[in-house]
Specification:
Layout (H helix, E strand, L loop, with lengths): L2 E4 L2 E3 L11 H10 L4 H10 L4
Antiparallel strand pairs: 1-2
């Protein structure tokens, strides 16, 4: 099952933990700053995050 956070951010499962409630606001903020899903994926994978 996929969990949609934002139109450009889709997770493979529902988020858990103390930061889960802030993911929608974070996704909206970085989208408003011009980040695309592709740039986020590249940045995260370069740091071993994705």
């Amino acid at each position: 099952m996929k969990y949609t956070i934002h139109d450009q951010v889709i997770l493979s499962r529902a988020p858990e933990g103390p930061l889960a409630a802030h993911l929608v606001a974070f996704a909206n903020a970085i989208s408003a700053q011009g980040y695309s899903a592709q740039s986020m994926k590249q940045h995260g994978s370069n740091r071993g995050m994705l």
